[in-house]
């Protein structure tokens, strides 16, 4: 067990950091604890940023997570970490200070991937959505009644923003290079069902298209030019091109880290470039890349709220000396609210070679899709059918045979197997 004189540092001040700090204290760590964050805010909840904050129902500054105010910790906020010296056991900060540590939790998460042209990305009317300030600024812009919103990227955030625009009565065009929205995550087959629902709600979908450049007048966005020569008049654009993991500050530390994440062993300790675990350092949340036993030890990095909580707690206990007997094996779960459409998932669809509609009917907008790989269930996705998801999650956790056997209420008598058709 760590001694009372030992010092713990958590780099990152989001949900994972908070749950990790709480878990360290609960597991008996009583030494000094410092939490470092690049934003000036205590940990806040991110899911409302693309939903309730953008509608104006919840102010951006009302998303602070409970628990942070009473936590016994020193907070260094608005001051990002810039380096890690493992030999000296010290974290370097942007203001020139260093923090010594005996236990270190890396929870630096991700940032929004910017528009590739920096000049165009800085135009008035061009936004990304990741942090509290992003959401507050975008809310103000949406409330100004833009004539058309352009959403660049048809992933979960892009679909959420497009749906929200329709809720607000705004004209919105979503441009996605793939064949359907969410095709990279769910495959073209299921993505097409979800795309049809969005189109039915009035979203102007431009799949198989790509924005080449953004045009401005006097520094403000006025239109977008697509690769095929099409022009879209828009005075507000949301760039939703995914996330970048915050690992640059670890360069030169000897840890195995790259833009795909910080590598961990099965227990959660960070590993160096030789594959040796550092028992003083753990990584958790969006930035952690770890071997998942449910997927034959394939290394995964997950950007899920539930993952941030579960892995943060796991890492906090680990650093406090409560070493688990087995590997970290939490079943990945995720949800996305897109207007009145709720998409939830259990497991990982990557690598699926088959998909089946096992409950409901896609034409009704309510269904469950079960994904298989080499004859085993690996993931399930529910669309406005959350009550059916727990039973499917059990199939995934048990690596049950695919397609599922036996009858179930409302299950089609003849389950048709499709190719997921990932791009």
Outline the secondary-structure elements.
Elements: E1 8-11, H1 15-26, E2 33-37, H2 52-55, E3 74-77, E4 81-85, E5 90-93, E6 98-100, E7 103-106, E8 110-112, H3 118-121, E9 126-127, H4 132-143, E10 149-152, H5 156-167, E11 172-176, H6 183-200, E12 204-207, E13 211-217, E14 220-226, E15 231-233, E16 236-239, E17 243-245, E18 257-258, E19 261-263, E20 269-271, E21 277-283, E22 288-292, E23 298-300, H7 305-319, E24 333-338, E25 341-347, E26 354-361, E27 366-373, E28 376-383, H8 389-397, E29 417-418
Parallel strand pairs: 1-2, 1-7, 2-3, 7-21, 9-16, 10-11, 10-16, 11-12, 19-22
Antiparallel strand pairs: 4-5, 5-6, 8-17, 13-14, 14-15, 18-19, 20-21, 22-23, 24-25, 25-28, 26-27, 26-29, 27-28
Polypeptide structure, described:
By secondary structure, the protein is an alpha/beta fold. It folds into three domains: 8-111 and 244-319, FAD/NAD(P)-binding domain; 114-241, FAD/NAD(P)-binding domain; 340-418, 2-Layer Sandwich (Enolase-like, domain 1), CATH 3.30.390. Helix content is 20%, strand content 31%. It is built from eight helices and 29 strands. The chain has helices spanning 15-26, 52-55, 118-121, 132-143, 156-167, 183-200, 305-319, 389-397, and strands at 8-11, 33-37, 74-77, 81-85, 90-93, 98-100, 103-106, 110-112, 126-127, 149-152, 172-176, 204-207, 211-217, 220-226, 231-233, 236-239, 243-245, 257-258, 261-263, 269-271, 277-283, 288-292, 298-300, 333-338, 341-347, 354-361, 366-373, 376-383, 417-418. The chain has a six-stranded mixed beta sheet with strand order 3-2-1-7-21-20, with helices on one face. The protein has a six-stranded antiparallel beta sheet with strand order 24-25-28-27-26-29. β10 (149-152), α5 (156-167) and β11 form a beta-alpha-beta unit. α1 (15-26) packs parallel to α7 (305-319). Keywords: FAD, Flavoprotein, Oxidoreductase. One of its GO terms (molecular function) is oxidoreductase activity, acting on NAD(P)H. Residues 8-312 form the FAD/NAD(P)-binding domain.
């Amino acid at each position: 067990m760590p001694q009372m004189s030992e010092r713990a540092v958590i780099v990152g001040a989001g949900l994972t950091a908070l749950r990790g700090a709480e878990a360290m204290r609960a597991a008996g760590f009583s030494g000094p604890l410092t939490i470092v964050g690049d934003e000036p805010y205590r940990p806040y909840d991110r899911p409302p940023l693309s939903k309730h904050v953008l509608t104006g129902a919840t102010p951006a500054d009302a998303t602070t997570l409970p628990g942070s105010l009473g936590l016994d910790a020193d907070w260094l906020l608005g001051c990002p970490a810039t380096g890690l010296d493992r030999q000296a056991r010290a974290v370097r900060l942007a203001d020139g200070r260093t923090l010594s540590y005996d236990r270190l939790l890396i929870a630096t998460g991700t940032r929004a991937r910017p528009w590739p042209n920096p000049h165009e990305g800085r135009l008035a009317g061009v936004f990304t959505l990741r942090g509290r300030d992003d959401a507050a600024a975008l809310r103000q812009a949406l409330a100004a009644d833009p004539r058309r919103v352009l959403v660049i990227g048809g992933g979960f955030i892009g679909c959420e923003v497009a749906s929200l625009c329709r809720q607000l009565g705004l004209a919105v065009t979503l441009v996605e290079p793939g064949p359907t929205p969410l095709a990279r995550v769910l495959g073209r087959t299921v993505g097409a069902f979800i795309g049809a629902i969005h189109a039915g709600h009035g979203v102007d979908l431009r799949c198989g298209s790509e924005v080449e450049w953004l045009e401005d007048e006097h520094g403000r966005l006025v239109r977008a030019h697509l690769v095929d020569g099409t022009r879209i008049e828009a005075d507000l654009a949301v760039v939703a091109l995914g996330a970048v993991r915050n690992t640059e500050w670890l360069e030169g530390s000897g840890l195995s880290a790259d833009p795909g994440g910080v590598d961990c062993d099965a227990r959660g300790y960070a590993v160096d470039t030789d594959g040796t675990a550092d028992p003083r350092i753990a990584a958790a949340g969006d930035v952690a890349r770890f071997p998942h036993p449910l997927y034959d030890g394939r290394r995964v990095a997950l950007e899920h709220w539930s993952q941030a909580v579960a892995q943060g707690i796991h890492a906090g206990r680990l650093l406090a000396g409560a070493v688990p007997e087995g590997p970290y094996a939490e079943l990945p779960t995720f949800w996305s609210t897109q207007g009145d459409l709720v998409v939830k998932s259990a497991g990982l669809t990557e690598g699926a070679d088959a998909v089946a509609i096992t409950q409901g009917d896609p034409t009704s907008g309510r269904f469950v899709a079960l994904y298989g790989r080499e004859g085993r269930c690996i993931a399930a996705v529910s669309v406005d059918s959350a009550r059916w998801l727990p039973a499917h999650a059990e199939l995934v956790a048990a690596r049950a045979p695919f397609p599922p056997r036996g009858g179930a209420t409302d299950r089609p008598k003849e389950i048709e197997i499709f190719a997921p058709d990932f791009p």
